[in-house]
Protein: Maleylacetate reductase
Organism: Ramlibacter alkalitolerans
Amino acid sequence: MKEFVYNGQPGRVVFGIGALSRLGREIEALGARRALVLCTPEQRGSAERVAQMLGGKAAGIFDRAVMHVPIETARGARELARKRDADCAVAVGGGSTTGLGKAIALDSGLPILAIPTTYAGSEMTPIYGITEGGLKKTGRDAKVLPRTVIYDPELTLTLPVGLSVTSGINAIAHAAEGLYAVDANPVMDLMAEEGMRALGAALPGIRSNAQDLEARSQALYGAWLCGVVLGNVGMALHHKLCHTLGGSFNLPHAETHTIVLPHALAYNAQAAAPAMQRIARALQGDSAAQAVYDLARDNGAPVALREIGMQAQDLDRACGIALQNQYPNPRPLEKAAIRQLLQDAFEGRRPDA
Ligand SMILES: NC(=O)C1=CN([C@@H]2O[C@H](COP(=O)(O)OP(=O)(O)OC[C@H]3O[C@@H](n4cnc5c(N)ncnc54)[C@H](O)[C@@H]3O)[C@@H](O)[C@H]2O)C=CC1
Ligand SMILES: O=C(O)/C=C\C(=O)CC(=O)O
């Protein structure tokens, strides 16, 4: 076995159908008295329910979370937290809402209680992202890691099937790249494989019945494990490509991950063979790249960048940006091969192996 370093990350997880009912006790355990509730405009109803459960401990609702945390939104939320004398942020929603909570925590150190409603996994990471002047900056800081996470599968029943599938594959991407990360370790490998297995089994169940609570529970459990992997080890080519396509071409986050992952895995297939075997085993396929592609296609997800708004004339520029500030990757980044990868993803070709 290779030498490795494992950093345990503090954080309390409460998991189960109906777990939201424990909110009051969890706020008390954090020692909080005034919690600011965060959400997207679309999830205002869930935030109101949460605020009602908090009763006198609710410091208000900030309902302007959007993707990639624009600095103006972060400033608005920080200002409201100060005005209302909040000593805790409760983020109810997906990665955008958790990300807003992180922007507050980064500034003030306020603890976050996260209630995830997608499979993005941000609640398990010390990674934050803030967008200013059209540029998204990401970083790691222990103080943005949520202190408590309540996973209640009932809250995911309303997540549309399409987004459930792509968000689940966003989570799978964290685990897949964690297996070939420069700082991979055997503990994260176990979580990565189990997380992918749970999601790979759950997504077809959700597709056939979005109200299937057992499938929803499996998916959320898988998302948790995959999020832990993202929070513990570094990411590689796939995440770099998705950050390029999302950040510079405004492509939707989960869909972009879903489309790019098979091609990033095909690119790394020879250089990271043991990781590929584990991914294929977890998803019950013969090849990692094809198994991810089939999971997306067979469950109605987009498989081509051109389906989600990418323009053919932007592929050269995307390739150029992806080659700058490279993340460590098992196979060196070769310009012609990366350009071909983007072409394949643009057209939605099923990888050969
Ligand atoms: N820092 C980190 O570790 C990570 C950050 N992210 C960030 O998170 C953002 C993407 O987060 P996502 O969760 O993919 O999307 P999101 O949080 O933007 O949610 C997408 C849409 O789905 C709605 N929604 C969420 N849960 C729902 C539910 N249960 N029922 C009905 N509607 C629901 C939201 O209101 C929103 O309109 C990106 O900005 C990405 O960069 C994603 C993963 C990890
Ligand atoms: O952009 C961020 O907030 C940081 C990480 C991610 O979005 C992870 C991902 O690409 O899913």
